[in-house]
Structures
1.
Amino acid sequence: MRPSLRNDLVIGAIAIVVLVLLPLVSPSKALIDFVIRAASLGLFATSLNLLIGYGGMVSFGHGLFFGLGAYSFGLLMQRTGMPIPVAFGLTILNCMMAALVIGAICVRLKEIYFAFLTLAFQMFLYSLIILWVPLTGGDQGLRGGIPRPPFFGIDLADQKQLYVTSGVLLVAGLILMRHIVESPFGYTLRMIRDNAMRAAFLGINVFRIRLIAFVLAGIFGGIGGIIMSLFVSGAYPELAYWTLSGEGVFIIMLGGISTFLGPLVGTAILLLLNDTVTRFTEYYGLVLGSIILLFALGLRRGLTDVLVDSWHNSRAAQAATERS
Amino acid sequence: MATYRRSGISRRAVVEGAAATAIGILAAPMISRAQAKPIKIGMPTILSGRVAQLGTSSRNAVMLEVDKVNATGGLAGRPIEMVIRDSKGQPQEAARVARELINSDGCELLIDAEASSGAFAVHEVARDLKILCLHTNSETSSLTADPKQRIPNAFRVCRQGIHDSIVGGAYSANVANAKKLTKWMTCSPDYAYGRDTTAQFVEYLKHFKSDVEVVSEAWPKLFQPDYTEVLTKILQTKPQALYSCLWGGDLTSFIEQGNIYALFTQTETFAVNMADYTALTVVKNLPKGIHSGNRYIKTFPKTAQNASWADAYRAKYNEYPTNWVWQNATAVNFLSAAARKANSADGTKLADALRGLTIDSPFGSNGKLTLRADDQTLIDYAVGWGTTIPTEPYVPDVTPGDWRQIIELETEWKKKNNYT
Amino acid sequence: MDLASLVSCFGSSACLVTQVTSGLIIGMLLFLVAAGLTLIFGVLKVINFTHGAFYMLGAYFAFSIFKATDSYVIAMFGAAVATAVVGLIFERLFMSRVYGRNMLMQLLVCYGFILIFDDVVKIIWGAEFRSMGMPAIFQVPPLFIAGGVVPPFYLFLVSMTTVIGVTLWLVIERTRFGKIVRAAAHNPSMLSVLGVNTGVLYGLVFGLGGLLAGFAGALAAPVRSLTPGMGFSILIESFIVTVIGGMGSIVGAFIGSLLIGLIRTFGTVGFPLFTDGLMYLFMVMVLIVRPTGLFGKEIA
């Protein structure tokens, strides 16, 4: 096994243990809800970073898969009451197929046109959700709650168990995505990001690699949607709206593009901001806008980028003083 | 500019609570300390974005009534402390905020002032956490009518689509008979409220006047700024009568744009949401003679209590009361009455007391409002239709709806939908 | 879906006139906004997402100026100039710092400002929607042209936008300033070597975009209700227009706006519930066939 993969698994295991023990230390119920939402959005943002950070493919329509995941899972549970793992698997299959079709059309396009076309596809899905009232409930979404039958002794109707499950899904998803990114496939993807023409001359099938990345991102984005649908016990068209894609992009910019966990850090920042600011003022836009400007104009990088840069700078300064 | 009133109330509530505790201890050593502890009520609502007025006016109404309730001792001796939070109109935020209010902020019950989709999300939270929840702004009938949605601890304290449609259909059929209006057209926003309300109105219009024909429909998007294509479609169809459930800013834009096409001189218009001060006071060139259902009008019911209530609201907040205002005020009034009846502020006891409760209210059709026991929704509120004039009082005469007829047709509607 | 009505409309001259004029009305206003957007992109290679907020500011400025002066002309020009100033300041103080950076950083700056502008408008003018009202001069019955109905105000709107559009074209194609702007679109570094203060130029281009958006807002104010966040829908539509027409092409923005206007009007007749979806479908089709838009050039 790759040593870095072994490290990841160890870190992941420690993270899960910490997550399980945390509610015992701090009885705050808000923490539980926070972790569930962070797992949902964190997976979504990290999957988007597969495309943006590692693939150089800026997608404005990634929210499509989040919404598709939420609705597929919600509908399957509401209409059939099948076991959750089966619905989970079928939803992933659904996201995969959608990503295959949409990706095949989109990944041929360059940069900004890729962004527009993915956005157009997402808005098209959104229009469909709003229109197809008998299936999706239209603009009111899936109402009445989704049944959560226990499986393997796990009862997701219990918020604490949902919390642990989301945490496990987050850690597992992150490890998988890290594995993808650190694999030969991941390095090929990065090569294509840096210079697609050179990669093509080296005989790499650029289209195929990009499509695979798109599909993988779509799958993990869909899993984020499943967690959210469990959290709200339903699905709403807002979960498929373009603002969610925008949020994904901001999370990545806020958290930092240079490290793998940057998007997760960005997710935590955005959620914390959201939760604390709405407690104190209804001018959330003013506060969020100002903070975004702080990052975009002041720091000009995400948080982890700042940390990584300052770490590099201090190392370089240290090396310089040692030399002199 | 909206003010954030939370800390003001809590300070006063704490002082009152402390005073009550002190007196209680001195006067009757048996009274437990817990009864003077303030009761926190959570209120998720929309304070930003397009529909911010819904939240700000709901908040104003609640605070106005809570002040009165606290002045007379609060709920079973416990002063009310409101915790009002913005969900930005997103259902997943509404769910999160509702959970946070209960789990982290110590709220014991919810006044849910969310709009329709947010209300369904909060409804699920109430189902999961089993706390008392009063929905004050969701008019979607299925929230309480559908037994699959209904939960014993959730009540709807506001008007309902089906009631409005029955009253609207009856009134409009009378006008249509008098003016021989058989060729109709509808123009409503394309979302659940718009579609359901329009369909129901048409159903009841036809019920009361069977030779009505809806020859065409227009479905602009919600918050669509430009109605040109819709207006030209209407002008081409040349209907004798037009129905619309556009509301708020959309209705205002529609009226302004329709004016320059001289639409309202050619077509008898039935705009169910016109008679709401949010539209009446904003539209600069209000045409005469638009038929409208009442949302909230100071002159209906034509009682002194209603007029003085509206004046008091206006004096305090320097704005006209909206439809959301009377509904939220009523929720607080019901809670107060239920606490008196149950002599407790405990959620389950309050819920039991609320079922079937009747209170005096300036907003009732006969001075009273009732929370019907079987589906836990509000009935007997003042509902009626009238025609507009361009100046105050805007809708001088309102023909009230007949509640016996409403209930009779509503029961049939429920049977038809297997809601019984 | 109502294809029967759609077909019969194509057969009737009154219907055709009315619908085409409606398409023109919608399209021309959209063109003003989209033209500014595409101009800024063409010269500065920046997608100005704040453009919808400029439109909103234009409308609110017009509202306040009209209330104060009771003159629509002053309100219109005042709003346009005020918005131009906002655009200039926005560019000089903020956007200029993110040129050459990641497109996403630029997007982030714009998004931050949208949030701030929306809340500032809410603080100054209130959260409730407002209505400017039709200026008295236009409160007259509509005209009948070839069987179709045309309100005089809309006639004014279409003429005004045409005048502005033609003036814009003349400025870009025939004046020295326009020549510099076009040169900046091709080769900014060469331009600064030739001694042109590119910083000021960029500010002026943004100001020009703001001017156009401000005009659009002022022209829309008499008929539309004003609310914080009203810039959003027109931003999306003008976005679609510039994408369809080709980023950087004013002609493309014009054609794209008219197409969108016509799709909306005829779409409402034939597909009343799917008009938006129709628009996105059209955008998808154009992008698949011609990814750079109908009149766009390849982005270097």
2.
Amino acid sequence: MKRILYITVLALGFTSCEKFLDSEDYTKKNTGNFPATVADANQMITGIYSTFSAAISNPQNTHFYASELASDDRFGGGGENDKDMQGLDHLMNTKPSRFETYWTARYQGIYRANIALANFDNITGWDSEAQKNQLRGEAHFLRALFYFELSQLFGEVPLIIDPVAENLPKAPADETYAQIAYDLQEAVNLMPAVPYTSTTSGHATKWAAEALAARVFLFYTGYYNKTSLPVANSGGTIAKDQAVSWLEDCISNSGHDLVSDFRNLWPYTNEYTAADYDYVKSNKLKWEGDGNKETVFAVKFGTSVDWGDNYQLGYSNQYLLHFGLRSNNGGEDTFPFGGGWGAGPVNSKLWNDWRQAEPTDIRRTGSILNVETDVENYIYGADSQMEETGFWQKKYIPIRAYNSEGTLVNSYAVLSDGASDDMQISHTQDLILIRFADVLLMHAELKEDATNLNRVRARVNLPAISYSLEALKKERRWELAFEGLRYFDLMRWGDAASALAAQEGVDIKNKGIDTKMKAFGGGYKARYEATGGFWPLPESQIQLSEGVMTQNAGWGTTNAEFPGW
Amino acid sequence: MFALRWAVAPLIVFANTPNLHAGNLVTTHKQAAPVQQTISGMVTNSSGEALPGVSIQESGTSRGTTTDNNGRYSLQVSSPNATLVFSYIGYESQNVSTAGKSTLNITLADVMNNLDELVVIGYGTQKKKLTTGASVQVKGEDIQKLSTSSVLGALQSQSPGVQIVQGSGMPGEGFKVTVRGLGTIGDSSPLYVIDGIPGGDINTLNPSDIESVDILKDAASAAIYGSRAANGVVLVTTKQGKEGKLAFNYDGYVGWQNPYKIPSLLNAKEYMSIMNEVRFNEGQAPYDWASLIPKQYEQIMDGSWNGTNWLKEIRNENALTQNHAINLNGGNEQSKFTMGYSFSNQDGILGKPVQPVFTRHNFRMNSEHVLLKNDNFNVITLGENLTYSFSKKSGIGIGNIFWNDIHNMLVGNPLLPVYNENGGFYDQASKVADGWALDGATANPLADMVYRRGQNISNNYALFANASLEIQPIQNLKFRSTFGYKMNASSYRQYTPIFTLSTTSSNPEDDVQQNQGSGHSLTFQNTLSYLWQLGEGHHFDAVVGQSIEKWGMGSDLSVTNSNSIFPGSWDNAWITNTKGVSGATTTLSGAPWGEGSLASFFGRLNYNYNETYMATLILRADGSSNFGKNHRWGYFPSVAAGWVVTNESFMQDSKDWLNFFKLRASWGQNGNQNIAGWQYLATVAFDTHNGYYFGNNKGDLQTGGYPDILPNPDITWETSEQLNIGFDSRFAGDRLGVTFDWYRKTTKDWLVAAPTLAIYGTSAPFINGGDVENKGIELGLTWNETINDFRYGISLNGAYNKNKVLRIANAEGIIHGEENVLSQGTTEMYRAQVDYPIGYFYGYQTAGIFQNTQQIEEYRNQGRGVLPTAQPGDVIFVDTNHDGAITSDDKKMIGNPHPDFTGGLNLNFGYKGFDLSVTATGAFGHQIAKSYRSFADSPLQNYTTEVFERWYGEGTSNKYPRLTMGSHTNSQYISDIYIENGDFVKIQNITFGYDLKSWFPKMPFSQARLYFTAQNVYTFTGYSGMDPEIGYGYDQSWVSGIDLGFYPSPRTYLIGLNLKF
């Protein structure tokens, strides 16, 4: 009887327990019930884009930043402790896993895109097939862009295209590029051919996919010395003709165009600053704003930003903070250029080459700040500024303004967008990844035809010239300076080793003391040749892979470590 | 067979009740003897005080009574030659023959470790001499006498094998409690069971609320709490009502606190010369002070100003601490109650003018009522415990280098004044006005503390109630049902005004923050226990039970907004007073806590044969909502055995010196289920960290959805398995007690979010991913003796523990620590790694300082690794792998934050009305990582005078390198120059008391004890920092011993009074 009683009590207990132990999470969904609706689809796609912001929360270890500081046109700079900046310029490493946050963010984006692409068919309630195809195309576009950035930065990387967790070795570059080509081809084919104005700024378009495909084609065929781009899933190949015709489609049908004045692309011409800025007033300039017709694809920013408590730091454009003038500059005396960490001083050689080649080019003074002539009172060596040249770029730098009470605020965005007045987080300027001028120049380069090259020159009142690769290279250097393209252009043209080595011996100031740019780790040329221009994979990831992933050539040794000045 | 006079017989479910024998366990009913006699008298303790509530029982009968409030009793006995048993908790029992007398006055001797005492073992109690596991009991009075505001603070010196370390010396901050070594990098806190209800918060109790604390250390003892017992169990019993006249107690003290040790910082002139030395070493011209700080330079040079000592500026001298507790206690055999109110208040010694304050009010009401009773025992008993606690505290930054005001004061620039001429803070405007141009970023750290971290208050409300019903249908069969309810609420408010302290430190819009949260949890448990005897001497005691718990029924709400219409006013800093909502400055959140539940079945069987051979079997089954359907249930068994060797006949000869010796051995398994819920699901999160801004409206953050973890459907319990062997013994006429334990505790399948490959694209799930072993021994010695009026007692305890990670389930076998801990730009300095202790310090070994170039060349020539940049005055990093280069492969273990040995000492002396006690604790064999300066952050940070020990030329120092800018490898490589031995012995408490009652016997009190206490009297240590007892570990529970400027515990002098009516 005793036993029966116990068994009954236990049995009753256990059955009701199972229900008692079920619980539900009221703030999350799970892959069993998500995505189901179009709203879910939009959130899923938004989640992929947000990995741009995640990467930019730690900007000095990103594709854009590396390509800028590693290029011949900019130095490392920063303060004496900022080895991360100087290391990039010298193609050297500074810590075991420096690109880890970027690497993580990109693979997060890839995983989210993989999940999205695997789940589109579970979503119901689409307004139209075009709506579905637009979002599908965006997922393909983003996955292609992420893999392309990874491939440009690291050479070969693990290729994962399904939403499964697998420890994979690095895939051969051909395979990854074939996947990128496939994704872009899908994106181009899926996304509707509507003018860019009918898509909300920030979302990828068919036109962005076409332009990116051309960029991928140029880099892959250039760097790897190929004639065509393979396409995964037995899609054949993308030949030059295809790339050209996509660019032509973009040029003719996208609605994108060059803005009238080159300088109106950049926020120093904004109306809040203009009132107190003679350069803008006397040249009658007016900023075209973010999302203007020349922006084919850009990373977007906003005003709800903090250090990670509630938001992401990368919701603000952290490149501006890093490229700002170092402490003690950046105030009234350097108006309108604001303060930051002093990364990426402009190589004076660019200024000199440019002045010699195109003395009347308004883009030179429109792109480069010469502290001797452009600001009232600049302090050299402020807060131990390193590798200082007296030249700074003006495209991505904090632009300040006076508010209605006459107080200097940290950014015009405080006045235009209601951003926090904080030097670190008030920056909302778009980071333009593909600009229409680049589309024109890529077309000229692929077609070996000067028409579109001269269209770019005509905007800045430079005379038409006939096509040559030399002329094209120069034009890209002037037009697209400081836009994250130069380093990879040098790589694909095979010009990198010599161009980078030319930085040695340039006059600089370290902490205000005159010196010359010098070589580390055997010199730029040796470093480039040892690495092929690629960067180290995060050491922690190599270890976690149990050796399945191997370190890139030229890295992981003592002489690849930047020792500091 | 039973003379049942009451009508609850149907409750008996046993058809065949075993035949019960008479004995001390069971009292059978007997016919009343014809001859009766009344015995009366008084019971006192050794100092002559009347003892109320002493139980007096006629041996072999059910006749019994208790003494009244004056210690008097009267009892009818069955024969003139009866034997009376006088027993009282905390005193030695006495058997006295009446021998025809009618008056018997008895003096009971108090004993600290009486083996007849009951200890709490979870769902029941047991005689200490019959326990088979390793547990330690600390009495409430031993906690109260240390005059601490927190219970844990008082336990520190009294519980061997339980390491209790302050997380911070700031008032109201908690302690890190580790039972027998760190068993996990997850939640390593023990389970607190308050009045039988698991999951309480000991910090909401005042020491005056405590009857006793029992800590279950071995797995066998703790197994009854199964799934949450892996890190030990702390059983807290609050004061319970006692029979007798109403008794009223007051216990209170007031004290004054000051820092024990303050580091010496550079003054203005010293600072200027050190800064110039840095410049000189870097090949730079010295600072032109006269033009950089024109005004202050003049004052420094004419001697009228020595610079600011920021640490002294925030000292709150003679900071007040006080505690007052009143207790009312009384009842009869039908109803007993106790109620108490206490108030505790402590001001911080550092942080002026926004010094931390902690205040707590506690109210307690416990009672027990017998509804039905027969001649022999209580049949139905109802009880309740109710505790309410309200506490509030405000604090300053005590976190990492970016949120630590003590650190900020240590590195604050001494050339910056605190206030300007108008009495306002010396801010950016003052700097501009005075032409202060040394550095734009330098900001007034005191103003920064006040503005950014100083204006806050957090309130906590905790209600804890339980009600129990106990039914004893037949003697020794008890059914007990307990319902527990816990309610918690908290609110937090903070204000950051508008300020501009430097070019980089400003807050252009003020911020008001308000958070609120509240919720509750429920427990319902039922147990059935039975005591019986089989044959001669075989005693059994069994309990089976079931419980369900549900927690997390609550929610949080939080709002931050700007633009207060009362700018600058802390009192008016409420969300209602802020105007406008904007994406840039308004943040909102509100979410449920996340419900969880646990269902359990458990049983325990205790057996003993003539109190000589003992065995215990325990099994618990727990089902937890934290795991997926197929992995919910965990089973936690244990076995234990004991043998009282001294009861054997062959030991009778040694009885005069060895009074008692019990061998114990136990083995058991416990679990840990404490992780966030739903780790077994592929959850999709929607949060403000994963949104995106589309379009050109920069204020419109779009919500993104993303899979936030890789699901782990197999996630299940962390299991801790422990083998314990020990003995309890008493020597020399019970005066010397020796307790010894050896244990090996292996915690398997840690619940960890071990790092996984980033290419997986989302966060690592919790996995069962690590094993760690703790091995150690514990020894407790007590000596108690009373010589006439002189009483004294010594208790010494010590514990040795060794911690070693056995497995971490990733390729590296490592869980990495954070970067930027000591200074920005530094790599990880602690980690959990296979074969090493959890959280060991990791970095370069050093071998002094290079004295000259010749030495460097010698090193190079010998093929020993030298950094290419090395020059005289630089640190000699050791090329531990002998590859001829200094690389990250040379990094090694350079310190261990876990002490090898911890100990406590208590001395007590009493003579008539005087009492004196001394308490000390110590820890040995561990290291502390200390850096009061974060080198790379700003080269202008101040130094302590330790900088005078730097190298500045051949032969000047072999300890600290030459001065360089912060990014130099000398300071940026984490090396053993930051590591110090943390060995210490702290004299924690010296108390001297006198009972005025012995002076004025006519006083209306039964006791009026006045006492003086000095706390944290002296610390014997070689450690150079402010306080060697450092629980801080960079906000991570598995790390400790990191000193970035630790809020030190104060030295306190206090005066107190105990009154008993």
